[in-house]
Amino acid sequence: xxxxxxxxxxxxxxxxxxxxxxxxxxxxxxxxxxxxxxxxxxxxxxxxxxxxxxxxxxxxxxxxxxxxxxxxxxxxxxxxxxxxxxxxxxxxxxxxxxxxxxxxxxxxxxxxxxxxxxxxxxxxxxxxxxxxxxxxxxxxxxxxxxxxxxxxxxxxxxxxxxxxxxxxxxxxxxxxxxxxxxxxxxxxxxxxxxxxxxxxxxxxxxxxxxxxxxxxxxxxxxxxxxxxxxxxxxxxxxxxxxxxxxxxxxxxxxxxxxxxxxxxxxxxxxxxxxxxxxxxxxxxxxxxxxxxxxxxxxxxxxxxxxxxxxxxxxxxxxxxxxx
Length: 323
Ligand SMILES: Nc1nc2c(ncn2[C@@H]2O[C@H](COP(=O)(O)OP(=O)(O)OP(=O)(O)O)[C@@H](O)[C@H]2O)c(=O)[nH]1
Ligand SMILES: [Mg+2]
Description:
The protein is of the alpha/beta class. The protein has three domains: 21-181, P-loop containing nucleotide triphosphate hydrolases (Rossmann fold, 3-Layer(aba) Sandwich), CATH 3.40.50.300; 194-277, Conserved Hypothetical Protein Ylqf, Chain: A, domain 2; 290-323. The chain has ten helices and six strands, in the order H-E-H-E-H-E-H-E-H-E-E-H-H-H-H-H. The protein has a six-stranded mixed β-sheet. The chain is globular, with a radius of gyration of 21 Å. The termini are far apart.
């Protein structure tokens, strides 16, 4: 009989926020920096291009020229044509590790100083912002490598919260000079729905363990099945709706056995969730990126905005989010 994917995800108790003290501090620091900035690069993860939008940046960064960079293009099925269809401002799909992509961004920043009569003599100043772990610091290092052939300037890592404060500007190109400020990732300031939290946990925007690896694995399985992408876990298990069956397959395949030789499904869950966070299980996109999906996301963001300002009583639309 043909495999039929489940259409409902089980109810698990999940945290619904991850807005930390240093996220708030970063937003204040961005306000203070703004006068010094020529172009803002907002980085979003192309595996979840809607979930990793943070309306806080709209509020904090006002009308500064902004380019949205959808990172980790090598790990996502998001296509440039989709971005064109969205028609939602200047946007580009990139790999933050790619020197070729970095070269393109440098040329664009240098063209900005050439085309702006009022460009400051101290060079063009860029600011990179985005949700935690989307690739901001990796991008800075690639830009510096592409522009100046220099080694890594800032620390990067596979978990959120590696960058803890707004750094001083780092030079990334010369003649004309370009400088870039790296900043800590900032999470959404309001409660998020279950799907968003599960997606954030899967791609690594919240700390590992905030959502149990078992739940992350069940969510990945649910989403892969809905997308008809069983082949992405075929080396571990035949098509299944049971996360336990999948984890047993992973334990067997990766030789994770507990005492007595039984499959160690806890170890398998940590392994598989970790592999997804790092993008090692293949390219996938977790958001509905159709134009209707974008509209639905926008409606939800406005609703969260109203909830934030009215405590859920919907007395009006808050002004902190402008779509
Ligand atoms: N495959 C792939 N991996 C990437 C890309 N960009 C970043 N990474 C990896 O993603 C992880 C997070 O990268 P960082 O540059 O530290 O992310 P960040 O946005 O600075 O994170 P915070 O400082 O914690 O907010 C690292 O393991 C990077 O190697 C990309 O475009 N493709
Ligand atoms: Mg960083």
